[in-house]
């Protein structure tokens, strides 16, 4: 798989990261270098090997269905650039 | 398990300007899990709370916060899967679906794309007595809900409430087996009924606890059969997805509109573009949601914050053992045990409260058919007038059973029973006591009835002459006797006597 200039621009846009026009070629190249490095892993034969998801065999931790959190509107909103009447206020998003 | 036999309904055919078209519909229903806390946090799921008060730091995506799964939500997904005869995956996993929107603080939704917890199942969608469509369910996965954006509080700003952010949803995905707008609504109705029986989702559509995305495409007759044979989507048309509908009426109207829109495009030589659309009930049309198009590249990847979800077969077996009797089985039992028609059985099993009420009436009067008639025709009608739910019925099953017992023992006539019903309904009094106190006992004493009839015959010689020529006029005499006895005369006895006296 090879990343061209357009793909790099698209990925940047989807990730909402601003990349100047003159940086796109270099970015695409960096992507390709990373992907190329990872490509090497394909040389390893993993047929019949279960994917390892953690170093220690662990079970996904569960919680009980109990309300133990929340009720802190002020804290939730304390980092908001703008908040009104208990809501986050953001620039208009129109559907 | 089911012994209900049914016929498959014909697909809806829409006549275009040039030729006939059929509809092919698949649905994605988002059902909110009936949990107290969210899927990955301990914040409350309660509807209508102060904005941003049911929010934990995990839900607000504060740096370093990690999700911990709510086991009850997992159980409800498994329970739902079992209720739909679906395959349960003992191992499933969570993925991140990435997109940007102000009501999604994480920048991704935790969902299950690659390994959902529930696989293939099925839903029998009732389309009337003896007619039903078996719709295949492709999968059910667990995922987080997003927050809520409010656009009409300020001209320049949108307001965001994260209370719903992170609430557990079950996304129930059907195969494209639904063949018309009415079937689509019936599918949602049946699914909602099953979820409510199971108790896994309250089915409240108004609050958005059950919402549907509808995929609509059209094809020429015969194409769908080819698809069913091969499972190759190439035989079907290009689909459009209508997002987020929470009303049966809108679902039907949106599908109808969308099908006609696509027919027009194809018949004019155009091509349907696969896209996401929004239904506008005010204008009754669907519109393209251009904003969603670009975001469609979700770049899913396994969520690194969560280990795969592994559950044990024994746990699944325990859940299975605790399943309640489901609608199809209950309906079949009502038909078999009480001799009800399919229609009556369907009405009475629409929800568990009605079914339980009916069964209590039956145990009080030991007559399934009469109980069904009285619950459906009298009680439901009366409750509807009062805009009351069966759960708040002022008339108890014991009272209604008592009224039916009085009819069965010939103590009161069916007509008087309606008066007793009304008194019992409004006053809460015991039917037997009402009949006793108000002197409503049926007159079966033929002597008394005969006396009343003789008087009427004596007072109306002209009518008697007419009745001798036209036997239909006998009804007038029956009516007069009923009137004279305050409706308490046994109608059968009156009929017999009138026939005797006028016939001779």
Automatic annotation (TrEMBL), chain A:
Entry keyword set: ATP-binding, Ligase, Nucleotide-binding, Protein biosynthesis
Cited InterPro entries: Asp/Glu-ADT_sf_sub_c, GatC
Domain of life: Bacteria
Matching Pfam families: GatC
Enzyme Commission no: 6.3.5.-
Assembly information from the UniProt record: Heterotrimer of A, B and C subunits.
HAMAP family listed in its UniProt record: GatC
Name assigned to this protein: Aspartyl/glutamyl-tRNA(Asn/Gln) amidotransferase subunit C
Gene: gatC
TrEMBL record, chain B:
An example Gene Ontology biological process: translation
Family annotation (PROSITE patterns): GATB (PS01234)
Cited Gene3D superfamilies: 1.10.10.410, GatB domain, N-terminal subdomain
Any one Pfam family match given in the protein's UniProt record, by short name: GatB_Yqey
Top enzyme class: ligase
A GO MF label: glutaminyl-tRNA synthase (glutamine-hydrolyzing) activity
Sorted UniProt keywords: ATP-binding, Ligase, Nucleotide-binding, Protein biosynthesis
Keyword flag Protein biosynthesis: yes
Catalysis performed (reactions): L-glutamyl-tRNA(Gln) + L-glutamine + ATP + H2O = L-glutaminyl-tRNA(Gln) + L-glutamate + ADP + phosphate + H(+); L-aspartyl-tRNA(Asn) + L-glutamine + ATP + H2O = L-asparaginyl-tRNA(Asn) + L-glutamate + ADP + phosphate + 2 H(+)
InterPro entries according to UniProt: Asn/Gln-tRNA_amidoTrfase_suB/E, Asn/Gln-tRNA_Trfase_suB/E_cat, Asn/Gln_amidotransferase, Asn/Gln_tRNA_amidoTrase-B-like, GatB, GatB_C_1, GatB_Yqey_C_2, Gln-tRNA_amidoTrfase_suB_CS
EC number per UniProt: 6.3.5.-
All copies of domain Asn/Gln amidotransferase, residue ranges: 356-502
Record keyword Protein biosynthesis present: yes
Entry-linked NCBIfam families: gatB (TIGR00133), PRK05477.1-2 (NF004012), PRK05477.1-4 (NF004014), PRK05477.1-5 (NF004015)
Oligomeric form and interacting partners: Heterotrimer of A, B and C subunits.
Function statement: Allows the formation of correctly charged Asn-tRNA(Asn) or Gln-tRNA(Gln) through the transamidation of misacylated Asp-tRNA(Asn) or Glu-tRNA(Gln) in organisms which lack either or both of asparaginyl-tRNA or glutaminyl-tRNA synthetases. The reaction takes place in the presence of glutamine and ATP through an activated phospho-Asp-tRNA(Asn) or phospho-Glu-tRNA(Gln).
UniProt similarity note: Belongs to the GatB/GatE family. GatB subfamily.
Protein name (record): Aspartyl/glutamyl-tRNA(Asn/Gln) amidotransferase subunit B
Lineage, opening ranks: Bacteria, Pseudomonadati, Pseudomonadota, Alphaproteobacteria, Rhodobacterales
